[in-house]
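Hi R.,

Here's the chain you asked about this morning:
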Amino acid sequence: MSNEAWLVFGLGNPGPKYETTRHNIGQMVIAELASRIGTTLTRTKLRANVGTGRLSAGSVPGLPGPRVVLATSTGYMNESGGPVRALADFYGIDTDRIIAVHDDVDIPFDAIKAKRGGGEGGHNGLRSMTSVLGTKDYLRVRAGVGRPPGRQDTADYVLRPFTKDERTTLPIFVSDLVDGVEELINNGLTDMQQKFHSR
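And here is the predicted structure, written out as tokens:
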């Protein structure tokens, strides 16, 4: 049985080796969103770190907004689908209320895009989610990290930390991504796209 909660899943890899890398920006967004709504992530048997709470109601300050389940995987990127499926089943969340937050090399650093469905663009976390969920029809909030310079391998590039220049604006970028997730949940995909695609 479905309910009105949303599952916001930040893609990334576990452990301190990866936590500051481009590939983990989705997990950075979840950490910031958890802080904003006053919850903490706790390791669970669902192969995920999970926190629950409510967003603000957006245009009506002070009123409780939509219920959210925030999560990151305790496993590696290419195994993301299993925890997402387990969380959706446990909390009774339909696929159309699942949001994957992930890095995207096909858009410039600091750009934010959102869509429902589409391809995986070579992203192993999305590929795993699509395979296990049996559909591409979930929402994605795409955090631009840009293309690797020169002939650097893409897989190597996303597993490296942000540059010094990028780190100066990264906190604002992550905060804007959190704003984008909240806008998506409170006001829908079209409004989010209009507000954030051209920011």
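One quick note: The domain at 6-196 is CATH 3.40.50.1470 (Rossmann fold).

Cheers,
M.
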